[in-house]
């Protein structure tokens, strides 16, 4: 059994100015950092600078591809825009394929309204599947995102959200361990 | 599929030289080459992961 730490980066999946998802992503990132046996990294897709004149694996970013290859699981923090996910996130995710196959993914949805981006999450699930990622059944749901944090980026109802994310991460870590074992030891 | 997998030598990691584990097969939808089997929409790639350094490599079925 592999004993090296799991690597589970947190990806902030929007480039929009004034994005409320940034506070959520930082909060989730802090929770992942507290997990024993897990290494993480914060990835802001705004910083990746993918070109817009082409798409798919033709525009691979070496550092992002290496990060995804190293990863055992991913946390995506994604806002709901018009019931969908940001096009820029899809643009970034489509730049890899083999790097994702049989790795775990958990989605934290962020919405201005009251449904915690559940519609976006449902739309994103088939994309995850086609990329070869394995989704968990816990989601992070952050409703009313503009009011969830104070002016310093601290979450108001910390206890509630820490408990929720603890469940989410518990499932994600388990799935990441199982899939890593499978990728490395169980042959098709 | 199982017989094919057993008959094929393990892929060797191009980064560290370890024997890799084949754990998936994926259709290549790029359209650059036709698939041999019309049951699929393109050629098939085996997906191999290195247990030593995590590197992933593809190999045409």
Low-pLDDT runs of chain B: none
CATH architecture of chain A: 3-Layer(aba) Sandwich
Q: What's the multimeric state?
A: heterodimer
Q: Number of helical segments of chain A?
A: 5
Structural class of chain B: mainly beta
Can you walk me through this structure?
The complex is a heterodimer of chains A (188) and B (61). With 188 residues, chain A is of the alpha/beta class. Chain A is 38% helix and 16% strand. Chain A has a single domain, classed as Rossmann fold (3-Layer(aba) Sandwich). In chain A, strands 2, 4, 5, 6, 7 and 8 form a six-stranded parallel β-sheet that branches. Chain A has a two-stranded parallel ribbon with strand order 1-3. Chain B has one domain: N-terminal domain of TfIIb (Single Sheet), CATH 2.20.25. A three-stranded antiparallel β-sheet of chain B has the order 1-2-3, with no helix packed on it. In chain B, a hairpin with a 6-residue loop joins β2 and β3. The A-B interface holds A 2, 69-70, 97-99, 101-102, 132, 182-188 and B 1, 5, 21-26, 45-47, 49-51, 54-58.
Give the topology.
The complex is a heterodimer of chains A (188) and B (61).
Chain A: E1 6-7, E2 10-12, H1 21-33, E3 38-39, E4 42-44, H2 62-70, E5 73-79, H3 87-93, E6 103-110, H4 118-131, E7 133-135, E8 140-142, H5 158-185
Parallel strand pairs in A: 1-3, 2-4, 2-5, 5-6, 6-7, 6-8
Chain B: H1 2-7, E1 21-27, E2 44-49, E3 56-60
Antiparallel strand pairs in B: 1-2, 2-3
